[in-house]
Amino acid sequence: MNILVTGAGGFLGRHMTAALKDMEGITVYESFHQTKKEEVDSYLASCDFIYHLAGVNRSDNITDFTEGNVRLTEEIRNGLVRFHNPCPILYASSIHAIVPSPYGKSKKAAEEVLRAYERNLKSKVYIYRLTNLFGSGAKPNYNSVVATFCYNIVRGLPIVIHDRNTILNLCCIEDVIKEFCRILKEEGFKGEDGYYGIPKVYQASLGMIADTLYAFHKNEGRFEELPEFERALYRTFLSYKEEWVKERRIYEDSANQ
């Protein structure tokens, strides 16, 4: 089975490609921002499934949302039509698709492109409207508050919280990848509204997340006694701590040379 992953260099894409490469009988095609069109076309001609994970979620230029979300999706659709390949597609959309912001409108428009593809080619499209994701490898100071908190805390940098009582819905990247893999067997979690989602969603306040991460930093508590969400936070925190230790070691080694 040939599977194309767009956005393979992103947080979600890296975890998805790693999981697929561990599965037998699967050849993974990885598409990055710099991948040439001719190469992408060769993937579209022969792929059996697409994880469309590429997109733009933050930019000061409004047109970037249209180009990175809508136009890219149209190019994928057009390629599949040109090669007569009614390949199933899983699309990583966002809960913001219902919000009338430039980003939200672009994700909604991309969804509509894929819905038309589904109708016209009698193919299968799985649209996941994802909420806040966290886990190892997420980019700090970007769009993951957990990543930003972990990054800053392990480095002794301050974190900014405007309202400790703000509640977030969060999904662990490990749970997302498990769900995405299930879709290959058509066992995805489909809601009554026709959109797919991650079955396991955690709710936590910004204050609780910050306090928990600071406790980890002080080595307070025992990992085996932690509830499920806190265990996922702990694994994430450790990944940033290990990254910081490596960076310090490299810096110290270079300073001693």
TrEMBL record:
Q: Which InterPro entries match?
A: Epimerase_deHydtase (IPR001509), Lipid_A_modif_metabolic_enz (IPR050177), NAD(P)-bd_dom_sf (IPR036291)
NAD-dependent epimerase/dehydratase domain: which residues?
A: 3-190
Determine the domain of life of the protein's source: Bacteria
Pfam families, per database record: Epimerase (PF01370)
SUPFAM superfamilies linked: NAD(P)-binding Rossmann-fold domains
Full protein name: Nucleoside-diphosphate-sugar epimerase
Q: Which organism is it from?
A: Anaerocolumna xylanovorans DSM 12503
Q: Recite the lineage of the species.
A: Bacteria, Bacillati, Bacillota, Clostridia, Lachnospirales
